[in-house]
Amino acid sequence: MTTPRIEDVAAAAGVHRSTVSRAFSRPEAVRQETRDHVLRVAASMGYTMSPLAQALRTKSSTLVPLIVPDITNPFFAELAKAMRAAAGERGYQLVLCVTENDATATAGYLHAMRSMYAPFGVIAPLTQLDPAEFEPFGFGSRLVVIDRMAPDYHGPTVTVDNVKGIRLAFDHLVALGHRSIAYVAGIVGTHTAADRREAYHALARANDMAPLEFNEGIGAEAGERAAEHLANMDGRPSAVIAANDVVAFGLISALGSRGLSVPNDVSVVGFDGLALGASGNPPLTSVRQPITEMGRMGIELAERGADSGRAEHVVLRPRLLIRSSTGVAR
Amino acid sequence: MTTPRIEDVAAAAGVHRSTVSRAFSRPEAVRQETRDHVLRVAASMGYTMSPLAQALRTKSSTLVPLIVPDITNPFFAELAKAMRAAAGERGYQLVLCVTENDATATAGYLHAMRSMYAPFGVIAPLTQLDPAEFEPFGFGSRLVVIDRMAPDYHGPTVTVDNVKGIRLAFDHLVALGHRSIAYVAGIVGTHTAADRREAYHALARANDMAPLEFNEGIGAEAGERAAEHLANMDGRPSAVIAANDVVAFGLISALGSRGLSVPNDVSVVGFDGLALGASGNPPLTSVRQPITEMGRMGIELAERGADSGRAEHVVLRPRLLIRSSTGVAR
DNA sequence: CTGAAAGCGCTTACAG
DNA sequence: CTGAAAGCGCTTACAG
Fold first, then answer.
1. Under 8 Å CB-to-CB from A52, ≥6 apart: which residues?
2. Angle CA A299–A305–A306, to nearest 5
């Protein structure tokens, strides 16, 4: 059973292949009777068009790449899930491209994006993204970045209001009576990372607290390192804000191994609001990024950017997800 | 700056396009001087071949689909990571296809696999996979399944020795003095799920224990439900084996919310050995699936199956990863 | 060793 | 409204 080609359908339906093509791609351009007949014949043969041949001919496809550094990071996994759904609704196929944070791999995917005639794409960075790396590809406003970018960057971006997110976390802790709040970084290079960190410092100053930042390692490991220091510290802060949920997981885990209990000994707030956080021990209080919304906006902005050539910047509002890793200061 | 085509390179190099094609695809078929010259000219123009046109012409591509139900499930995320690396090493591009466990979506990807001329593919199921759903596509031994399949299934498979895995967990708990060990299912339909469950029951019987199985809900929720029951139970088992790590996370979290501490009150063993388990509170003891190995074997079997038409079945050995969620029975 | 030609499976001006 | 023709960017027997 060989796959039927357009020519086979045309022969079976007794029309020219251009008519078959139109019946599928521009149905209004063919007489209804003819169209129905052609479509019926095609269906009976199990015919579908070759996306490859279509892409080659029209120089456009419905493949949209999402370029992420690491799919085992639950934030990117949730983002991918949301974007896949959003892309699917609009008739696109999301192609997940994982770079392992390697610039060569990224360039490879951008190249592939062009050779596959992708209409647009989305890139979510983990560390500093150098616009010089992708501007040569000339995607312009057809490539959206999931991060804040430098003010002189002229492509579309979608991000969350990180300053507000950190404020949500900080205010929550202050309201619980905490007067000494530390910050664990653990993400590096992105504007997102810088924004969160700076927001923390500003807030600490504004509240007359001495800022205390731990900034060793990346991800869960950063949390573990911070826990070491916290465990051995006199005048330990009563609360910690982690730059993201994975950092918070590592922190809580290592705190527990050292006999420190969350939230009894230390309150912890994460950032991301991952679904997995609900299954933490304790369930993690976290600044929730509207990931589904980010996915949808990412696709929307990319599509609009491809149409209009205009680069929009969307900043989404975070919410505080209060679960059980924060409690009143003792 | 328009992308150069093969004809542009041919013109610039003063040869026919067939020579350019050979210089790239069958370098031994062209005189060395000519080849070097062509390649140099091509490089100077930033030329690369169109994978689209190549695939259309040769009816083969290097795109290999990995079909998974849910990328936010860390097991599939880790599998995807491993497979991407394995595929990349062999010159293939892994295309991640997420089905959300929907049969229509799966069929769509299998269809795409054919129309993209994928040389082979890999599918990792979450629930029962009905061979009837994909056998019509006629992939034969070019589609490997990451699960044990029914004995009469004739495609290649790679899976872990689940019986042995459960035994590892069980024996570990028995060695710690546990005489009452429960099981939380939380995965459903796959042969993997059935094998783990049955192994537990067999082991309980062999050790003269009354089997106690919790089987409500899926994933983390299954763990939470089990925790409810455990918290309200007289003669609570001192240890629990969870069907996978995500179930274990939910279990430990909900146990904690009810004032039960792991491993002091209950020991918990997971299954998967996710990296994330190391950042659990406490770090999760788990039966480690050799995910990297599974990824590599999956690609290898698929490639060999495509070449030879033979379907191999690989069963990998699990290991016990002893972390901190298990302790001696009180 | 290299070139000319046919063709992979489509689309789309252009005629009629 | 439909057909005939050219062409998207390649590859590969076939000659020479």
1. B52, B55, B56, B115, B116, B117
2. 90
DSSP letter for B317, please. Answer: P
Q: Quick check: A296 pLDDT over 70? A: yes
Nearest to B249 among A114, A255, A279 (CB): A279
Three-state DSSP state, A140? helix
Q: How far is the CA of A42 from the C1' of C9 (A)?
A: 15
Which residues share a beta bridge with B314?
B158
| Average pLDDT score over residue span A137-153 | 88
Q: Which of B15, B263, B309, B31 is nearest to B154 (CA)?
A: B309
pTM listed for this prediction: 0.94
Tally Cβ neighbours within 10 Å of residue B204.
20
Look at residue A114 and tell me whether its pLDDT is greater than 60.
yes
Q: What's the CA–C1' distance between A165 and D10, in Å?
A: 51
DSSP 3-state percent helix, strand, coil across chain A (nearest 5): 50, 15, 35
Mean pLDDT to the nearest integer, B95-118:
92
Q: What is the DSSP secondary-structure string of B23-59?
A: HHH-GGGS-HHHHHHHHHHHHHTT----HHHHHHHHT
Among A102, A32, A113, which residue's Cα sits nearest to residue A65?
Answer: A113
DSSP code of A265? T
Please give the backbone phi and psi of residue B325, each rounded to the nearest 5 degrees, phi first.
Answer: -90, 5
- For A273, other C-beta atoms within 10 Å of its C-beta total 26
Number of Cβ within 10 Å of residue A213's Cβ equals 15
pLDDT score, position A133: 82
Residue B56 is nearest to which of A53, A70, A324, comparing CB atoms? A53
Name residues 238-297 of chain A within 8 A of B (Cβ).
246, 249-250, 252-253, 255-257, 262, 275-276, 278-283
d(CA A155, CA A313): 8
The pair of structure tokens assigned to A58 is 């029209």
The pair phi, psi for residue B207, each rounded to 5°, is -100, 15
Distances (CA, A) of A274 to A29, A278, B299: 48, 8, 31
Which residue is closest to B250 within chain A, CA to CA?
A279
Would you call A111 and B262 a contact, using CB atoms and an 8 Å cutoff?
no
Cβ B60 to strand D below 7 Å: no
Phi-psi region of A326 (alpha: psi -120 to 50; beta: other; left: phi over 0): beta
Q: Which nucleotides of C are covered by protein (CB under 7 A)?
A: 1-5, 7-13
Question: Which positions 178-217 on chain A have a beta carbon less than 7 angstroms from any atom of strand D?
Answer: none
Quote the pLDDT of residue A137.
85
- Per-residue model confidence as pLDDT tens digits over A305-315: 998 999 999 99
**Closest-CA residue to A237 (of A217, A219, A255, A257):** A255
The beta-carbon neighbor of A96 closest among B96, B117, B275 is: B96
SS3 A187: coil
